[in-house]
Amino acid sequence: MQMRRVLVVGALLAAVLPLAAVPQADAAPRHRERVVPCSRGLVALTFDDGPSVTVTPRLVRLLQRERVPATFFMIGQHVDAHPEVARMVARAGFAIGNHTWAHEDLTTRTPKQIRTSIRATHQALLRAGIAPTSFARPPYGAMDDQVRRVLVGIGYTPVLWTIDPRDWAGASTPLIETRVLGAVRRHRTNVVLQHDGVTNSPATLRAMSTEIRTLRRRGFCFAGLDAAGQPTPPVPVASVRPDERRVAEGGRVGLTVRLDRPTSRPTTVRLTAEGRLSTDVVRFRVGETSARVSLRLPQDDADLHAARSSVGVSGGTGIQPSAPVRLHVVDDDPAPVVSLGDAEVDASPLLPTQVDVPVRLDRTTDHDVEVVGHSSLGRVETVVPAGSQEAVLVFTVPVGTPRDEVQEVRVRVPGAAPATVVVRPPAQTRAEAVRSALATVRWPVVTLPSLF
């Protein structure tokens, strides 16, 4: 009986202990619990031993599609063999670190050999047209004080990891997923090591979608690495989108202020606009990506047919500003009112005479205003330039005689009160005017030389 009890207890322990030995995953939220994006911390994905012509391009496309940052630690020999793949990774916006020339255990190398391996890899990246980061990852995580001193001495930041699903050792896709998801912890440093350049990398590639989807659902944010090699909060791009692009002068328009991705820290967005904003500083809590504000456009008295206004992000904290948005302002002001001024002129007995009739607008406008005047002296056109309020209509008065009577010529412009041009006859006849003109001429004195 005693033996039977021992066997029963042993069986229970055998069933329980394996479960206790497995690290408990950061549990997924209950079905009805709403998890704020990025509220539970950061996860930095890193990939070693590439580039691979078969896995790396597919992995890059997946990460781009999911908008997940990552750091690729590349082996110099692989970069030399496939520089085009390394370039593709860099051009896709991913960070690239140094993983030695031939995946050596640096703790077995002399300082000179360590420097040679790291520098050879750096040169391979430069030949591939890549500007690498200053990150270096010792293969196998093998780093003692000497390795650290040498790396730091040549300007590199050593970067290790906190989570290793051992995908390089032949683990299946479900096992890789389980190990990663079970090791990520809230508000801890989560740097995941996986591989894109080993035999088992296709299994890692297949695990990525589940890893990304599940961790996001649990409230984690994916992050790049800062200068110290630690996960750094995403820096979203802030933009403004109006409800409509055509807005009446003095009208109100709603604006959506949007971050292109959530982040794990509070952020602020500072707005600038031509008009009055309901607020010029928008504050986002962790995980929030959208807010609403309103803008009332200014009202003026100018007739502006091509008015434009703009609203945009001028700065803030924890964000990148985007380009401002242009609004078309529909002007509701009436066209400017034209008024004319009276004029007087004495007719000439010799030549036609010009007389200026003043034209004035009651307000400026952003375009030229054409004014056409009609009178018995003929039809005349003028233009009031954009931004100005004044011009003249120039009429031509014909030659007159002293026998003519004083004339009052009416000048009319559509929409304006008529003006009067008083034309007085000349005081002299044509002959008298000629004699007067000649009398004023100072003839030169010509002295002829003596011929004899």
TrEMBL record:
Alphabetically ordered keywords of this record: Signal
SUPFAM superfamilies xref list: Glycoside hydrolase/deacetylase
Top-level taxon: Bacteria
Residues making up the signal peptide according to the UniProt record: 1-27
Residue ranges of coiled coil: none
Domain NodB homology: start-end pairs: 41-223
Keyword Signal assigned: yes
A Pfam family per the record: Polysacc_deac_1
InterPro entries the record matches: Glyco_hydro/deAcase_b/a-brl (IPR011330), NODB_dom (IPR002509), Polysacc_deacetylase_ArnD (IPR050248)
PANTHER family assigned: GLYCOSYL TRANSFERASE-RELATED
Name of the protein in its database record: NodB homology domain-containing protein
Source species: Nocardioides conyzicola
